[in-house]
Amino acid sequence: MPPISRTSRNSTSNRRATAGTTDSRTSKRYSMTMLYSMAAEQDVEVEDDLSKAQRRLRELKSRISAQSKKNFVLERDVRYLDSRIALLIQNRMALDEKQEVESHLEDVEPSDGIFPDDRKLQQYGNLFFLLQTEPRHIANLCRHVSLTEIDTLLQTVMFTLYGNQYESREEHLLLTMFQSVLSNQFEQINDFNSLLRANTPVSRMMTTYTRRGPGQSYLKSVLSERINNLIEHKDLNLEINPLKVYEQMIKKLEEENKSLPEDLPRSVTSEVAAANPDVQAIIAPRIKMLMEIANSFLQTIIDSIEQTPYGIRWICKQIRSLTKRKYVDCSEYAICTLIGGFFFLRFVNPAIVTPQAYMLVEGIPGKHPRRTLTLIAKVLQNLVNKPTYLKEEYMIMLNPFVESNKQRLNKFLMELCEVGDFYESLEMDQYMALSKKDLIINITLNEIYNTHALLVQHQEELASSEKSHLRILLDEVGPAPPQVSRKENKTIELPLFSRWETPIQDLATALLYDNSVTQNDILYMETKSIFVQIIRSTPKMAERGSIDLFQIAETAATSKDATLVRKGIKVKEMLRELEDASVIDPKDGYKLMTEEVTQELAHLGNLREIVTNEIQSLESVYKTICDHNNYLRSQLDSYKAYLQNVRQQTVKDGSSGFGTSIIKVGDKEKKPTKVKALGPYKFTHAQLERDGIIVESNVPENRRQNIFFIFTSPIPGTFIIALHYKGRDAAILEMDLKLDDLLEKQQDNVVSLDLEYVQLNVSKILSLLNKTFAKRKT
């Protein structure tokens, strides 16, 4: 017999004899029913309403998973371009980003492209099987990557490696990875107050997890109706910031053409506004209404505890467990602040503040409802955290709500953690996965190459031992290929299989090697499963009243349906084997098995209703995700239009791309003319040093007078700085700079730019480029 999984092998030595009493078989058999049902669900020959609904459900879940991944990629592109365009506008510059736009925005059908050969695909299949089934490797990698690298890795982990969001095995493996990441986070951070709050790869990972299908489904079902009811009241103004209330009061008086009394100046401090009796009179009823609305939101969330996705509750449970172990004297109140920080800060509150981004509402809420939703989220956050009112003193007026609901919320947060573990079912899930011959993930070439590159980059931290399976596979697959172009970035089906474990051929083989299961148990379960399949295929057999198993087997064996005939003959032989082993007795009409078949059919009847309801729920989720996809695409279309206009304007006026004027849609387009390069402009080492642009130089003092720099701009927004030495034709070095890269460095407070021989001040080089190239004509 070929070797099977480690779990099975380890229990081989403890295998029991096949004989046993009827009582022991009964209790064990009943406990294994669920396990064998998992295998029975793979049967594709049954064509009743339940099997059709289950197929529909699987297809729907697969589509949700695929669409979620597309949305994640789109959101990343939107974030990237949004930040770049914002920087350009802030700097009063417009950049021709043709190549950037093509790489980020154009929808290009992939060509045959660059494709790994069969040997390389097999190596990647081994590598990604290991990564999926041993989540600690991905957990370790997530701890070492930078914040700029995490989004690309998360795309692969959340939506590809564990992309089937409704498949228990992948979900449980992903949660196992989370446990490892969280455990390390608790070990590395000593400051309790900063745990899980900073914008780190770990926090980004947790937020991304909440945006998967189950989390979106929860938000839609729990919050959508309440938020929509609120935003219907477009004119309901619940502003409680005294300064804003005062300003609105003054504005209203002026609109009514009323002269302002002397004691009502246009501009006042927050303290003066808060002390104004009229302002206080306006705010008082608003405070009461805000508390009522906040209470309705809180009650809705508390009542929905059973709808909360298992994975989110399990993460809450791990946060509680890790906090208790790391901080032994930690109070329940402090533990709840961490749990609430994840549940509200990362999951619920973002959807309340921006419901349109979560497709909970159609369109953007009006000004007043938008402000009310923000205040509600602030109140809920103050319930979770120890409230501080240093920045927003006016929020202290809502403190009575916080004080009266704190215990109620903490009780809810603790109850969120009350879910069971999944390790026992994960073991069976792994059996099931190994029994499949088509364990496949859909993955792009760049996802493979990027993950490969990160693994190689951090190889020493991840797999220092030469005997490590990860190290062996990385050595075999070799160096990581470079990223391919968008056109060549094909999505491929990558078969996953292990170098060290031969897949099990069937569930029976796996269960036989478990010391709690005998051959007779397997035979009994399989017999029962075939009877259920036969009755599901011909429901009239069960409509005659009591179930007669022998008669059902005989009817199937003599029917005109070849599949039923095969099953009928097989199950008759299995009944005889069980009789010979004294497991069942024909004298009592196979009473025990008949009861269990009846129970299983009743369970499947209820299951059909459950599956139907789940389909309805997930169809709504799928529509929401598709709507969000359309919303993101419309944002990208707006960016395309903006950047296209910038390019057109650049060509029309011959400018270098600086300036923010935009062509109107109705303008008549002129025939484009070729944009000429700007420059060269020469600067000496002494000039740049004197102006503070060179902040540090590695050029020897006696040679600096021979060093000069040539600045050119081949296309708008792109600059080449070349370092030359007198008497030499070729440049010593050249650096290609993008304007928005420099702006991003400036915004991120990066002080200097390394040119190998010299360090340049980022802000001052930006100023020089602006001064040198702005408004120059081609």
UniProtKB/TrEMBL annotation:
Residues 43-70 form a coiled coil. SUPFAM superfamilies: GTPase activation domain, GAP (SSF48350), RGC domain-like (SSF143885). InterPro entries: RasGAP_C (IPR000593), RasGAP_CS (IPR023152), RasGAP_dom (IPR001936), Rho_GTPase_activation_prot (IPR008936). It comes from the Eukaryota. GO terms for biological process: negative regulation of Ras protein signal transduction. The keyword Endoplasmic reticulum does not apply. Gene3D superfamilies: GTPase Activation - p120gap, domain 1. Keywords: Coiled coil. Residues 1-19 have a biased composition (Low complexity). Residues 169-385 form the Ras-GAP domain. Residues 1-28 are annotated as: Disordered. GO terms for cellular component: cell cortex. It holds the Pfam family RasGAP. GO terms for molecular function: GTPase activator activity. This is Rho GTPase activation protein. The lineage of its organism: Eukaryota, Fungi, Fungi incertae sedis, Mucoromycota, Glomeromycotina.
